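seq:
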Amino acid sequence: MDLIGIKDKIPKDLFDTLEQSGIKDLRPCQEKSIKKGLLEGKNLLVCTPTASGKTLVAELAAISSIMEGKGKAIYIVPLKALANEKFREFSNKYGKFIKIALSIGDIDSADSYLVDYDFIICTAEKLDSLIRHHTPWLKYV
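struct:
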């Protein structure tokens, strides 16, 4: 499937950004996810090997949803170093369209300031802390 095949299914700014980043064709897991309802808000579990395209699947779902005003998204990573890397990558790519935050602190808290952000990158441990603190803005994810 060509990227152009989903042009009418995603926000223009997202399409333009992906096209400018050099994406022309979608990988099999990305195409399958789209056909199974990724862009229609269906819940999916994508299990596929490393470097097969899962990150773009997440980007398509999260960034589309945010740009369409449907709520926030949380991108969960296993390591702080990866969180920092993804924060830089996503900020460069999407920072002009959405508000992106990094939440990896060791302090066990609700991080109420995150209510003002659209896309939150955090470690699994940090998400656990946010859930245990009954963080009010989680209902918008």
